[in-house]
Amino acid sequence: MSRSDLSLRIISRTLAILSAAIVLLILGFLVRESAPALQELGLARFFTDPGWHPLSGQFSLVPMIVATLATSLGSVAIAAPLGIASAVFAHFYAPRTLAIWHRRLIELLAGIPSVVFGLWGLVVLAPLVARLGGSGQNLFTATAVLGLMILPTVALLSDAAIASLPRAWIQGAAALGMQRWSIVGKVVIPGARRGIGAGVLLALTRALGETMAVLMLAGNVVQVPNSLLSPGRTLNANIALELGYASTFHRSVLFVSGLMLMLVVSVIVVGISYRRGASDEWR
Amino acid sequence: MISTQKLSISYHGRTVLRNASLVAEPGKVLALVGPSGCGKSSFLCALNRMTDLLPGARVSGQITFDGQGIEEAFASPVELRRNVGMIFQKPNPFAMSIRRNIELAVREHGRHSRSDRQRIIESVLRDVGLWDEVHDRLDHSALELSGGQQQRLCIARALALKPQVLLMDEPCSALDPIAADRVEQLIRSMRGQYTIIIVTHNLAQARRLADHMAVFWICEGVGEIIEYGETESLFRSSANPLVTSYLSGRSG
Amino acid sequence: MSGGRFHASATTPTRRHQIPEFFTAVAVWMAAGLVVATLAWILIDIAVRGISQLSPSFLIEGVEDAGRAGGIGPVLFSTMLILMVTLALAIPLSLATAIALTERVDQDSRFARNVRRCLDVLAGVPSIVFGLFGNAFFAIMLGLGYSILTGGLTLACMVLPILIRTSEQAIVAVPNEYRYAAAALGLGRSATLFRVVLPAAAPALMAGVVLSIGRALAETAALIFTAGYVARRPESLLDSGRSLSVHIYDMAMNVPGGGSRAYATACVLVALLLAINATTTLLLHAAGLQGRSVGGKG
After folding, report:
1. Domain count, chain B
2. Contact yes or no for A149/A206 (Cβ under 8 A)
3. Which of B244, C97, C145, C276 could in theory staple to A19 by disulfide, Cβ–Cβ 3.0 to 4.6 A?
């Protein structure tokens, strides 16, 4: 190997390792900053303390965890059917040109900043929801907008999974005299379920990771929500609201909540990537 | 002179060619013929170690260059490829100007002044009969050329490195008959200056071009060389009945 | 990604069979229509409310009265500086990583697999976590404070996975004929890469860069605690500066009566992103890679 080839290999590999190490660096810093709280307070207190009053030493994360799960799972419940339907639409129902434009719009939707979704939700959607009672800034509004935001992930990955199905399956089903709806329901969606499942899971990680739209729409009251129309505060929103002035244990607890988010999301991502195995289906 | 002794090639553990021993004499044209899938192209790729780039390819056996093993004769595969040029079935000029296509490798392999390079470009383009057609548009994209012109440009590009050996993998098969004829003429005109090893499915072309010929055949699923000799005498008579029937167009 | 379309409609004899067919079709059309209509609603809303506030001076003037008056000149300037820092770090790092990942012809070395897995996880990290990390590492540990530099470096970590993935695709998409031709001409690996492969991949590489700019422009949560809030024009990279997205957030949430100016800023941001979207499409088209999309993250 010539000298320039050798130095290319050394430099590129070193930088590749550096890129890969960033994720470990992030994890390391979260652990480092969380350590004081985890050591002094212990994990249990985040679940057993009576409430979230960081200035008087009460650090219950339960209300935030519940709100995070509620908005994330709720938004997936909205995005999954719509996203899958959208992919099915582009493949089986829309005329060719419409399908192309539909895909383009979905990609556009994927690129809209969360803060713009938040602004629209705040000014347009929240007043509409307020007619049901309250201020309109509640978990329902946040969940609906979040669902819209993560929809492209479901739609684009389902689209790809459907596109990678062998054509012969669909032709074979049609040759058996199956109708379109039963081909879709009995052949296409079961056949593409792994890809669609991965899309839904990735959408869940997006929802868990989203901050701005929820911060602007959920009302941010720290309480265990008792209905969809009650306001709530997610872990992400809590960090964004309090990191600016938090110090000592309070700051450390915020890093603990960040660590929780990162671990949950990473487990899902690694799970998808192992299930995907060595195949390069989505690359 | 380039020769191989007991060369075997496998992909991902599946042998495609075994025990191929051949000699290509300097300044002569050697044609490799035989049915598809019998390892002719793989053999060609092994000669300039292009097999290094093919996933899962393994080569065993000896390749010698002027009596030395290629590992001793050349410091690296890169060095080897500078001396053993290769022309592909499908013309593959880079999406760059005609000038840049020729200059690229020349610049990489030594210091030349601008006028040197201009001289090299003109001389190789003249050698392949392209100069009159393109001298006023050297800075146009090579992709604007016709297929036959592209193939001749690829030959010119290889000649610019002053190789001793040229490997050609069906260089005319992707071209229309007139362009193919043009390239064939070119190869004939290069006889004597370069050692040429050419893979071809066109037996008439092999007969027109080649001094020597090697016939590849699939035996028990693996490619082998079953006959080697002077082209004319092989066409007139071969001891091997398979070869006789193949060369007379009755099988293969 | 746009695979073949399958026409599977069959003429149907009985009425019993037509009912589910009909309702499925209605449901699918309605779902698609709902998605498109909502998107249109958002875009039209932004355009209608935003454009009325827009003027050339809005793009140039400084932020006055907490944003209720004046324009977004310094905000645009800070955004640009943050982007420049981001790209200055992310481009070389991602290009080198993509080169390392595509080094082997058969692609699947253990090294590459592990690096890719790390990058997959990095791509999933919530943006607020990037904010925490940037705050703890760049701002406090490296002592860069709330600054353009801190924000830009944090965003660089964030866009890295996308940029690496698109660069990798761009390099892999270069036809192997080019590599074989270059090798046959005796070009070494690095010469092949820099003289032949990268120039051929340039449009697709650019498309990846443009896409990453879009992601960086859209980001808010990672910037609040790294680049900070300050709405003045930064004097140096070590000054705090407010990005467009942070400005929208601040105007909408923290400034009573800031809503209309937030809309104007959102209009500018969305217009920039639409332009970026169009540029990416054009570049990918030029590279012959149209129809490739990357799932989005807001």
Report:
1. 1
2. yes
3. C97
